[in-house]
Amino acid sequence: MKKVVIVGGGISGLCSAYYLVKEGYEVSVIDQGDISTGASFINAGYLTPSHFTPLAEPGMITKGLQWMLRSSSPFYIKPRFDMEFFKWAFHFKKSATLEKVEKAIPVLTEINLKSRDLYESMLESLDFDFHYERKGLLMVYKNTESEKHELKLAERAVNEGLEAKNISKEELKKRYPIFSDEVIGAVHYECDAHTTPNEFMKNLKSWLEKQGVRFILHQEVKEIVSENNRIIAVKTQGAVIEGDEFILAAGCWTSSLAKSLKINIPIQGGKGYSINVQRPMGITIPAILVEAKVAVTPMKDFTRFAGTMEFSGMNSIIRKPRVKAIADSVQDYYRNIVITEEERDAAVSGLRPVSPDGLPFIGRTSAYKNLTIAAGHAMMGWSLGPITGKLITEVISGSDTSVKLDPFKVERFN
Q1: Fewer CB within 10 Å, N side or C side of the chain?
Q2: Tens-digit pLDDT profile for residues 101-113
Q3: Taking the CB of residue 280, how many other CB atoms lie within 10 A of it?
């Protein structure tokens, strides 16, 4: 039985373990924490075929520079001298062209749809239980400029085969009276679904443990040992873990681990924040508050408010102005909903692994025959977890892959 070692216990790592176990592999998962925090636990829980455009869109760098001095802006770049970030930003700017966005749209649409279907297959398998609802996602807006942009995107979505419908202010008020009078309409992406990440991750980990997956937790990788173009072991402060195949699925930390092997995988941590409200709120459908760029999700037993994309280095610092911006925006879009100071103070953060072109890195490296990468999913990490795990397993087993991997080449920025 082949032994597979996965570095990283986020959604990509655990989904890779899931499909590898299904194929009969012996799996070990190494994580520097206890697999209870981070982006895989604090995200909005969306499965988003609707998110078919990459973060690297034309004009995004300009917006980031304009917002740089606004600590409460939804897209924030902290001024700092960081050569790795400068290199990443250079690749980001080169990727933010209409031509590259057009190429990415069908790719992102396909893998999001396949991943959503895999979530449903997981649920139907009865391997482990988790909250899943396919109510769709509302893109809710307050001004005519946003309306024009969202309707154009919805038209494109329909052309890509997705279910998207415009909802007028009157119809929205009738269906969902909880929205304020400031909201002038919405686009309903019926193709989308949502989950409760905390529950999913906990139950998947429990199932994997029952299948014999070995979890090596609170262990930071100190060295990846190679010999003759093959990885032979991973060293932590307390163990040496040998294997036949190795997977780097360590989120933002994948970049530095790959660098130690002289592999260039440019990834930056894009910090997001989330606030959980345990009391009843009357919110029944997921929504993105377009101008504020805040995601609202009715999860199992609580409601989550999440948002921001902050590039400020590898840290978990909670910046109160950014939390306040999320909380304040909720009052603008909903009637009689106020997030309390206590709820704001309990906000948490996580680092999304953001690639320069908005596409993940999935596949083999050319430098090492038994090293596979699964990282760089940006804001779609949760949505793409199952398809990533499936693809990684297909690569390792030598099977035909569910989608073509050319757009996700690991060394495309060399």
Answers
A1: N
A2: 999 999 999 999 9
A3: 9
Cα 179 from Cα 188, distance rounded (Å): 14
Rounded Cα distance between 67 and 59, Å, is 12
Q: pLDDT digit string (tens) for 199-224?
A: 999 999 999 999 999 999 999 999 99
Confidence class for position 67, pLDDT limits 50, 70, 90: low
212, burial (CB in 10 Å: exposed 0-12, middle 13-18, buried 19+): exposed
Average pLDDT of the residues in 57-63: 68
Q: What single letter denotes the amino acid at residue 357?
A: D
Burial of 307 (0-12, 13-18, 19+ CB in 10 A): buried
pLDDT digits (tens, 9 = 90+) for 114-169: 999 999 999 999 999 999 999 999 999 999 999 999 999 999 999 999 999 999 99
Helices (H) and strands (E) in the chain, counts: 12, 21
Write out the DSSP string of 155-203.
Answer: HHHHHTT--EEEEEHHHHHHH-TTB-TT--EEEEETT-EEE-HHHHHHH
- Confidence (pLDDT) at 63: 66
Q: For residue 343, report the phi and psi dihedrals to the nearest 5 degrees.
A: -70, -35
Written as one letter, the residue type at 314 is M
Pairing of strands 230-236, 221-227: antiparallel
Q: Are strands 132-133 and 3-7 parallel, antiparallel or unpaired?
A: unpaired
CA distances from 175 to 168, 178, 186, 402 (A): 10, 9, 12, 38
Q: Which amino acid is at 350?
A: G
**Number of neighbouring beta carbons within 10 Å of residue 158:** 12
Q: Tokens 């924040």 map to which residue?
A: 273
The identity of residue 256, as a single letter, is: S
CB 26 within 8 A of CB 329: no
Question: What are the residue boundaries of the structural domains of the chain, listed by start?
Answer: 3-408
Please state the length of the chain: 414
Best CATH choice for the domain 3-408 from the list 3.50.50.60, 3.40.50.1950, 3.30.420.40, 3.40.440.10: 3.50.50.60
Candidates 326, 363, 408, 309; CA nearest to 57 is: 309
In 169-229, the DSSP E strands lie at 185-189, 193-195, 214-216, 221-227
Question: Looking up tokens 């681990």, which residue turns up?
Answer: 257
Token couple for 330: 């909720």
